[in-house]
Amino acid sequence: MADEERAVDRPPTSVDLTLQNLNLNLLVSLDALLRERNVTAAARALGVSQPTASAALARLRTHFDDRLLVRQGREMVLTPLASGLVEAAQHAIVAVTQVFGHKPGTVRDEDITRNFRFASSDYGTAIALPPLAARIHADAPSATLTIETSKPLDLSTLDERLRTIDGVIVPRGIVDGLPHIELFSDEWVGVVSAHRADAPEALTMHDLAARPWVTTFSERSMYVPVMRQLSLLGVTPRPVVTVQNFAEAAPFIDAGPFLAVMQRRLAERMAEAWRLRILDLPFEPVPIVQALWWHPIHERDPEHRWLRTTLADLVSRGIYSQE
What we know:
Elements: H1 2-9, H2 14-20, H3 25-36, H4 39-46, H5 50-64, E1 69-72, E2 75-78, H6 80-100, E3 115-120, H7 122-127, H8 129-139, E4 144-148, H9 158-162, E5 167-171, E6 180-186, E7 188-193, H10 205-210, E8 212-216, H11 219-222, H12 224-232, E9 238-243, H13 249-255, E10 260-263, H14 264-273, E11 276-279, E12 288-293, H15 302-316
Parallel strand pairs: 3-4, 3-5, 8-9
Antiparallel strand pairs: 1-2, 5-12, 6-12, 7-10, 7-11
């Protein structure tokens, strides 16, 4: 007992005094300011006014005795000290959330009424989400899904977008540094008409350069690895038709001398409905590893944890295995 009393009554150290005087809201502000590198953008991410974010930056500058953000030309950049705080701030946010954001670790299936929201291409929607939707409906019939496929992924606003949805389904290599679950692997293939006399039986590098292409508006995000490979190989595709998603490419390929590059799993499904021929590419394309990515703020959310556990169970059962 005496030891306990001495532990309680001991004089505070300088570290204790620093923590006692520190508002943990400043940690959240610090994380946002380091990520956004802009007071207005940080305020938007935090859901506060710009003056409030500016006041937080002023307090942080006093605390660290450092400018943290300085103007360089037309942009704000991190000082050396601020750059060294980025990873530490992220880890601190996770640790604080685990301590103070703790909620009961489980939730009953029948109590889940959430509308789970995902952003995905038509490829991710067609391959990854139907098994998940079926499982959610079976286990938690009051839950619903909303899937956004109308616009391409904008990486510059991804952090902000992921705060408002439950996840985005895109291949590994497009998104980095976020928690995720890998779902399945796939490969890039060429697709041409199966009934036209001028359609090749096998693709050559000359075909890739000479034939007219059908491309999608998501080419910047979805095609980056394979398109970079083509560029390094000296091939510049010649797009003639641009559509909104991969599924819309099928009728054009069926009707004309067009070539498209898409994921094998999706191409095989489309070939069943359209007269399409699937061909191996004349080089070794980078593999596709499709994954669900989410924002760290969802880590302690019981319903989101339930979603991740359900999805991980589907993966472990081989639901997404290539047949």
